[in-house]
Design goal:
11-stranded mixed β-sheet, Rossmann fold, single chain, alpha/beta, two-stranded antiparallel ribbon, 13 strands, 266 residues
Amino acid sequence: MQRAEVGVFGGSGFYSLLEGAREVKVDTPYGEPSDAVMLGEIAGRKVGFLPRHGRTHRLPPHRINYRANAWALHSLGVEWVFGPCAAGSLQPNVRPGEFVICDQFVDRTWGRMDTFADGPIVTHVSAADPYCPTLRPLAVETARRLDIPVHDRGTVVVIQGPRFSTRAESRWFRGQGWEVINMTNYPESILARELQMCYVNISLITDYDVGVEGDPGVEPVTHTAVLRVMQQNNERLRRLLLAMIERLPRKRECSCATALAHARVE
């Protein structure tokens, strides 16, 4: 049987971690996922990797089939999901090259299919604490063991994309005290919660959103700059993911596994 217990959404740099990887095409009730799932093994754990943008990065953030992606991993038996992503900083103390293990999100997207709860059973999943309480501290502790600069919490504001923010928007987000800006974390994280999978966001800071206000030495974000920092930090991200998978508990004891227990109106 094609099975996995750990799932990873991310970029192509993760392929080299999988031992004896094989490609599996997964059909879902929600259409096609971004790509086939690569199945392999890390530290004795079966892992499924799915590039959220497709392996050639052909899908912009607003065109990703988030429901199909989440369902594909769930249908393979995945219980733990890692969601590393490129992200911008909204605060001077959160610097490019650092990691942020977010504890909150703010959704500023529109028109995305962001729930499996289309009826006839009405379902209201709690999002008060949207990320797994087991995976978050594991990510922080592991990053510190590896001497990776990491922030143990932060709020990510998820924008629609594919354009970057205006200066006015960035000032607004910064003024709210939010630390991170990204285009893909919503609805990926909450769909995992609806499927009772554990999910952790690992934001790799690639840039300051539109530059630090009032600092002429910091340029507004460009796609080229984002890719440059991602390439420079890919190895650290791969080391972090490998070490986290090696340290995963064998049994889930968090509330993610029972997220639907009191969420349904029947």
